[in-house]
Write a structure and sequence with these properties.
The chain is mostly beta strands. The chain has one domain (2-6, 19-175): Jelly Rolls, CATH 2.60.120. It has helices at 22-33, 36-41, 177-180, and strands at 2-4, 50-55, 61-67, 75-77, 82-89, 91-97, 108-111, 116-122, 126-129, 135-138, 146-153, 159-165, 168-175. The chain contains three helices and 13 strands, in the order E-H-H-E-E-E-E-E-E-E-E-E-E-E-E-H. It has a five-stranded mixed β-sheet with strand order 1-7-13-12-4. A five-stranded antiparallel β-sheet has the order 2-3-11-5-9, covered by helices on one side. The longest helix has 12 residues, at 22-33.
Length: 181
């Protein structure tokens, strides 16, 4: 098992990603989230998350996601993509790791106690994140759907899925676009 401390691996990401910046992606998700007609016709399943791929700006990948009460993503990252998401209706919670994890060569990491972050995102609130951002997104409501808008650049090359028990993070699966499109 690898031990992981954020101070030991703090890295400034100086790699410029061509394409739309996070400000462009945030403007886009705000615009989509304010489209009341689109949100009104978006199909919501009573028990399963639903998603619809939409056209994003400048070659980005974008999704509209419906969240029934009590659903979530599980721990994951978006590999080399930067991303943004915004809650269009309802409220979402994001749990994240405030640290950059090694990208390869590990299956199990022991996290330090100071890496956990929690963020509540009611309707109209969103966030941007960099590459390799590990998080989970949840709709903790017991009776209200949530809808969110997400955009990524470059389009998602993969999603790594993790399980977490206490401070132990385990890589479980790597999904490719053909697994979710």
């Amino acid at each position: 098992m690898h031990a992981f401390s954020p101070a030991a691996t703090a890295v400034v990401d100086r790699d410029a990603t061509p394409g739309p910046g996070q400000d462009v992606l945030l403007d886009f998700v705000r615009q989509v989230a304010s489209d009341a007609e689109m949100l009104a016709v978006f199909p919501l399943d009573p028990t399963e998350r639903t998603w619809l791929q939409i056209s994003g700006p400048d070659g980005s990948e974008a999704w509209l996601i419906g969240w029934p009460p009590g659903t979530g993503t599980g721990w994951h990252d978006h590999a080399e993509s930067v991303g943004v998401f915004l809650t269009a209706s309802g409220e979402l919670k994001e749990n994240s790791l405030a640290a950059r994890l090694p990208t390869d060569g590990w299956k199990i990491l022991e996290l330090t106690d100071d890496v956990d972050r929690e963020r509540r995102l009611p309707a109209g609130q969103g966030r941007a994140f960099g590459r390799h951002h590990v998080h989970e997104v949840l709709n903790e409501s017991t009776d209200q759907h949530a809808i969110s808008v997400h955009a990524y650049y470059p389009p998602l090359p993969q999603i790594r899925r993790y399980s977490r028990t206490g401070q132990v993070l385990r890589l479980e699966q790597v999904e490719r676009p053909q697994d979710w499109q």
